[in-house]
Amino acid sequence: MAQVDDAAAHESTLAFVRGAMRRPLLSREREFELARSWRETGDQTALHELVNAYTRLVIATAARFRHYGLSFGDLIQEGHLGLMQAAARFEPSREVRFSTYAAWWIRSQMQDFILRNWSIVRTGTTAAHKSLFFNLRRLRARIDNGAGAAHLSLEQRTRIAHDLGVTMADVNEMEGRLSGGDFSLNLAVGAEGDSEAQDFLADERPDPEASVGESHDRRLRLEWLAAALAELSPRERTIIAERRLRDDGVTLEELGRELGVSKERVRQLEQRALSKLKVLLTRHAGGDAATLTAG
Predict the structure, then answer these.
(1) What does the pLDDT read at residue 106?
(2) What domains, with CATH codes, occur in the chain?
(3) How many Å apart are CA 94 and CA 208, to the nearest integer?
(4) I need a surface site. Which of 175, 199, 267, 280 has the fewest CB within 10 A?
(5) Residue 275: CB partners within 8 Å, gap ≥ 6?
(6) Cα–Cα distance between 236 and 233 in angstroms, integer?
(7) What is the pTM of this model?
């Protein structure tokens, strides 16, 4: 039944293509007349004639992208969406042919469709990757000279990067992406097929027990630190907070100016405060200094 449906869809697409290619092209004057009528008065008949006249442009563009493995009919449908967008945005006053303006919208719509559907993994997420996706095969065929090498040489990758204005990293990534298809994690592994590929993926995250234990220990150490700091003098707490508990700790000289002492005196006070803090933390940890740095 599926084969019958596919055959019917294919025949329907061919009939549509044959009909579209028989339609006459528009003159420049007629093109602008229809575009103005649609833009200024919303004339649906004018829009219909304008769009139908350039369906052949959609078909020609779709033919260029057939080797990406997507349905020719789907490409034509997407191209028509681009053609409709062009008709909605076209400004006759700019004296540009509608066919020239529409070609960009048609191509862009098809390219976005291909990038969305070529793989289940999102492809062409940057301008560089999009350019490589649609040009790498062509450039590779041009510089490969029929050698059919499995991978591009360093010289070839450098040339492609230069021609497209992208980085070598982008070329390497897209070459690897295009050289291999999608790989299902549910693919059976082994002759018996009892295991799937996902069964061999290791989860490197800590297990729930370890995560809970680490969270508990971290919270306990913070409580010990808060209790120990409370037993220091206000000046000692200030020095520890400014010098040790900030990502951008202040300098001895800056802290000395704030406290009204020399930077050497701040250094001495800091060392004394650290020694007192260590003793206090060890006491709060039950006398086990190793517990303070565990985890």
Answers:
(1) 93
(2) 12-118 (1.20.120.1810), 124-179 (no CATH), 208-292 (1.10.10.10)
(3) 64
(4) 199
(5) none
(6) 5
(7) 0.50
